[in-house]
């Protein structure tokens, strides 16, 4: 415990010396979450990155999140404890693939989930996160076709929520969320039929046939498909004894903080993102001491990528 305390003090001291704000995603290791200035989902952290007075942003998350912060605050120094922290979902599409897809649908509006590289964002019209995907898609005139990328499960969720049938969905997936299956969810619900159910829209189970048909054994009134920030809001007023949580397990830390009465149980306890967990206490120290890894973006894509992100951030303001 003492060691943790002195590590935290050192992190806070170094952050002050660098005039740095530390942002941590909800999937980071609990130690990292607890030392950060702000913990949140992709959208909340993007908004904080856009509005901060600090001259340096230390992004404890994965690379596309740090890139998004850089796009929104190009004059600030943006650091990530390791540039190796990628995202298997973002890797399912590159700029060449998107250009080829667009050329087959020249009239379409391209909506890109933030889980994409800056080069892909530069080819998109507007970005979205899991918090605002439905709002963003609703902001596109109903008669315009949409190319939604890269997550198929989020894309299907948006299609259902908006009732639009003119959305083409890229067949990408996140290896962590795709691995949280309908079979696992059903087993857990059967074992605890009174539980509330929180599901991230990237999950394989979010689009399962039983869910779509509505004839399965998922409790429709207690099943909530939400972003990580949405889960926290829902958890605050929860009175259920148990809530089953279908998302990356780092999320449990914040859920348990906001509600100590309900027991939060992971649907798949092995659903850990190895990229998120690359931010170790040692690497955070190295980052603050040595100013690495710094996020730099090629000038030719910055302007175009920023427009897509800014259009998203403007929605719901
Ligand atoms: P949220 O925007 O819901 O925090 O999700 C980010 C992410 O990487 C999901 O895997
Ligand atoms: Fe990417 Fe999945 Fe990890 Fe989120 S959980 S950062 S989508 S690999």
From TrEMBL:
Gene3D superfamilies linked: NadA-like
Keyword vocabulary terms for this entry: 4Fe-4S, Iron, Iron-sulfur, Metal-binding, Pyridine nucleotide biosynthesis, Transferase
Superkingdom assignment: Bacteria
InterPro entries, per the entry: NadA, NadA_sf
NCBIfam families tied to this protein: nadA, PRK09375.1-2, PRK09375.1-4
Pathway: Cofactor biosynthesis; NAD(+) biosynthesis; quinolinate from iminoaspartate: step 1/1
Species annotation: Kribbella karoonensis
Cofactors named for this entry: [4Fe-4S] cluster
Enzyme's top EC category: transferase
Lineage, opening ranks: Bacteria, Bacillati, Actinomycetota, Actinomycetes, Propionibacteriales
Annotated EC: 2.5.1.72
A Pfam short name: NadA
Gene, per the UniProt record: nadA_1
Protein name: Quinolinate synthase
């Amino acid at each position: 415990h003492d060691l943790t305390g002195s590590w935290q003090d050192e992190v806070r001291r170094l952050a002050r010396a660098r005039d740095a704000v530390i942002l941590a995603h909800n999937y980071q290791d609990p130690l990292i979450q607890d030392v950060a200035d702000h913990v949140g989902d992709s959208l909340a952290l993007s908004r904080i990155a856009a509005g901060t007075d600090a001259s340096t942003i230390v992004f404890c998350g994965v690379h596309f999140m740090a890139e998004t912060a850089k796009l929104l605050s190009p004059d600030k120094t943006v650091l990530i404890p390791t540039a190796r922290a990628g995202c298997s979902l973002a890797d399912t599409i590159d700029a060449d693939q998107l250009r080829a897809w667009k050329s087959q649908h020249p009239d379409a509006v391209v909506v890109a989930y933030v889980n994409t590289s800056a080069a892909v964002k530069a080819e998109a019209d507007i970005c979205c996160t899991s918090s605002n995907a439905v709002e963003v898609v609703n902001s596109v005139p109903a008669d315009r076709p949409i190319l939604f990328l890269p997550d198929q499960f989020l894309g299907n969720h948006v299609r259902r929520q908006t009732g639009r049938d003119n959305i083409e969905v890229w067949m990408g997936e996140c290896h962590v969320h795709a691995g949280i299956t309908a079979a696992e969810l059903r087993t857990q619900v059967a074992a605890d039929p009174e539980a509330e159910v929180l599901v991230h829209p990237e999950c394989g189970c979010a689009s399962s046939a039983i869910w779509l048909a509505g004839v399965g054994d998922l409790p429709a009134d207690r099943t909530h498909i939400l972003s990580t920030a949405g889960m926290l809001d829902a958890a605050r007023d929860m009175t259920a004894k148990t809530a089953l949580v279908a998302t990356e397990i780092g999320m449990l830390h914040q859920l348990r903080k906001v509600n100590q009465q309900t027991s939060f149980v992971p649907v798949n306890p092995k659903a850990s993102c190895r990229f998120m967990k690359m931010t170790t206490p040692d690497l955070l120290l190295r980052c603050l001491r040595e100013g690495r890894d710094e996020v730099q973006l090629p000038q030719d894509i910055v302007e175009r990528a920023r427009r897509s992100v800014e259009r998203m951030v403007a929605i719901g303001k």
